[in-house]
Amino acid sequence: VGGTGSSGLKKETHISGFSGTANPFKERICKIFSTSKTKNGSISFEDFLDIFSAFSKSAPVSVKADYAFKIMDFNGNGVLDRQDVVKSITCMTGNDVHNILTDLEMTMIIDMIIEETDMDGDGHINLGEFHHIVSKMPDFPRYYEILRL
């Protein structure tokens, strides 16, 4: 049903955002959920349904946390390292376009996030640490929920 004649959905038109605005992680969401062997950025209808299931109001917090972790693990090494946190903050703030944060502010935020979350002191955030911090955030599930229209 995509614009390219393929059976996949185009991410630009179908995964533009869950809250009515452009989602800065839309490309990551498509990449994480895509089962396409061509790696062209498209998702199948089944992938689309998986997205809706994972981000539904009834999805367990642990499922939402697992996918949030995968979405933020840009380099795919199974941990959130400094580069992943930088990219995540940049996506969330639009700092690459709008220069909202100075380099010093960005460094301070990244240092604080890693210091507060990295419980074993190895310099990165593993899935267990991520789940731990998410468990202390009562609003977390709402941020990973597709809003009803």
Automatic annotation (TrEMBL):
UniProt-recorded Gene Ontology molecular function terms: calcium ion binding; magnesium ion binding
Keywords: Calcium, Magnesium, Metal-binding, Repeat
Domain EF-hand stretches: 60-95, 105-140
Superkingdom, natural source: Eukaryota
Gene3D superfamilies noted in UniProt: EF-hand
UniProt KW Lipid biosynthesis keyword: no
SUPFAM superfamilies per UniProt: EF-hand (SSF47473)
Keyword match Acyltransferase: no
UniProt-recorded name of the protein: EF-hand domain-containing protein
